[in-house]
Amino acid sequence: MSVRVLVADDQEIVRTGLTMILNAQPGIEVVGEAGDGRRAVELARRLRPDVCLFDIRMPGIDGIEATRVLAGPDVPDPLAVVVITTFDLDEYVYAALRAGARGFLLKNAGAVLLSQAVHAAADGDALIAPSVTARLLGAFTRTAGSTPVRPVEALTDREEQILAAVARGRTNNEIAAELYISLSTVKSHIASLMAKLGARNRVEIAIWAYETGRAGS
């Protein structure tokens, strides 16, 4: 079955380009397009896509608020949202992560990375563009000003390894290959990390890794 995607970007040429790229990928189907956040929220609620791909800067309701409405901490049945943006390290990107975005990509990410991000989000995973993970999350944690939460239970050595890999933008499959463990074992450790850290998703796991200096090199 194809992964159903909703694309929202206020620039028609970008929206059309993203739609063409995604529809050309195996196992992905764009089921809706929106030129602003309000329309994106309406379509998302009506269509219930597997993944929402949102630009941050849109008129009316921007991508951050649209993400919060559809994927925020108070949403009982959150949708998977991937933010796609230009890289300028502004507060909008940080706010999107806090609003519940599962990951982010740059608009120049390319078809392969875009496809991987959509499939990862649909699988409950998240793909944070590796090229910007360290710089963006590092900057985020320096400006966030919040005190990192204390885990409810100490992390195991293996969890520390997986924590660092998540912070580097690795997917579950990549972590499994790197650490020579099964995919189900990775998922089990990710679930344990989320429980211990009170994290809603792996983006928040990565943020915590940076806040506590555990991200590695």
UniProtKB/TrEMBL annotation:
Transmembrane segments: none
Every HTH luxR-type domain range: 148-213
A Pfam match: Response_reg
Species per Swiss-Prot/TrEMBL record: Streptosporangium longisporum
Domain (Response regulatory): residue spans on this chain: 4-122
Alphabetized CDD domains for the sequence: LuxR_C_like, REC_NarL-like
Keywords annotated in UniProt: DNA-binding, Phosphoprotein, Transcription, Transcription regulation
Lineage: Bacteria, Bacillati, Actinomycetota, Actinomycetes, Streptosporangiales
SUPFAM superfamilies (alphabetical): C-terminal effector domain of the bipartite response regulators, CheY-like
Domain of life: Bacteria
Name by which UniProt lists this protein: Response regulator transcription factor
4-aspartylphosphate, modified sites: D55
